[in-house]
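Write out this protein's structure.
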Amino acid sequence: MILFVPAVLLGALALIVFFLLRGLAAVLPGGRRWSGWRRVTVVPAFVCAATATAAYSMGVVILLLTMTVAEDGGTDSAPFPYNHPCREQLTGAVDYEVDFLTLRTVCVMEGGARRTVDDVPQGVRLTAAASAAGAAVLGGILLATGGRADRGRDRARAQVDQ
């Protein structure tokens, strides 16, 4: 499980660099791909995408490390070690589940009840969700309005071809 941490970090870093470079290309002079108000909209969309990627990957790494602690074994590790969040924060936890979509660890109690613990900070989850929502809204606006500056040229070519 610990081997996934570098893969997640490298993949996230590649995506973050990609989003930031795309946003930078939209701002620099000579970037005729985006024009007018679309240029002002596409840059925050790429920045939101980069922020969402960074925050979500940080949460995934925290959850992977939580799983690694639980699978570590050794003395005093039944059902999981002393430093696992379910054992540190709750009494009577017998099992755990990891939810990567909402970035939470859910502890299963003796009676079957499920409780969440704060292993991924609330700020990381909120940043990931808000940034993803911002990127989706801004990307939707760009797609709904045609997006690129060359839309008029494509329309003119289509009329000439007919």
